[in-house]
Amino acid sequence: MTMDGTSTNDPATRGIAPDGRTAGTVLGALRLDGSASVTFRRGYPTDPADLWDAVTKPGRLARWLGPVYGDLVPGGRFELRMGADDSASDQNATGVVQSCDPPRSFAVEWCFPGERPSEVEVRVEPAPASDVGERAVLVLVHTRLETAQAVGYGAGWHTSLDQLADHLAGIAIRDWDARFTELIPAYRAAAAPD
């Protein structure tokens, strides 16, 4: 089931099976009708306050996603430097913080070179009691995408959320390029027509 209530059996939605850590859970769902989107609902073995801190504090974001610069308040502009901390890189996302409700949610306009603006919403929730070993849940929804973008963002966010798990576990952050390369075929297959 995706965040918006659609079943992963819905022909417009393609689920991606997990990497074995949480068997039976859909880690990413591509919605391909109309404006494409990518949705993740990922549990972590930390409390919601720590998870919120990990996804909103520049010092912690730099450890698993990349350095972020700017005014991280509603209406503020930001730049996220993925990979090398280089302001001239073509891998930097920019945008505007649209809303922020600490410690529960934020939304940003997401601008990536060569793409039309899209939107990323992040929510942090307490994990349901039935989610053994998980104390907090992160929901990430990236909308207003074209289908080809959804495939890349599916594998990309999946990789980044794996890196967040590494950061929260206090272990070495896995290589982004290697993990993305491993995942992209599954996302391409999920987006392919039946």
From TrEMBL:
Q: Where is the composition biased (Polar residues)?
A: 1-11
* Domain of life assignment: Bacteria
Q: Which CDD domains match?
A: SRPBCC_CalC_Aha1-like_6
UniProt-listed SUPFAM superfamilies: Bet v1-like (SSF55961)
InterPro entries for the chain? ASHA1/2-like_C (IPR013538), START-like_dom_sf (IPR023393)
Give me the ranges of the annotated region Disordered: 1-21
Q: Which residues form the Activator of Hsp90 ATPase homologue 1/2-like C-terminal domain?
A: 46-168
Q: Name one Pfam family in it.
A: AHSA1
Q: Which family does it belong to?
A: Belongs to the AHA1 family.
The identity of this protein, by name, is Activator of Hsp90 ATPase homologue 1/2-like C-terminal domain-containing protein
Q: Which organism is it from?
A: Cellulomonas soli
Q: Lineage of this protein's species? A: Bacteria, Bacillati, Actinomycetota, Actinomycetes, Micrococcales
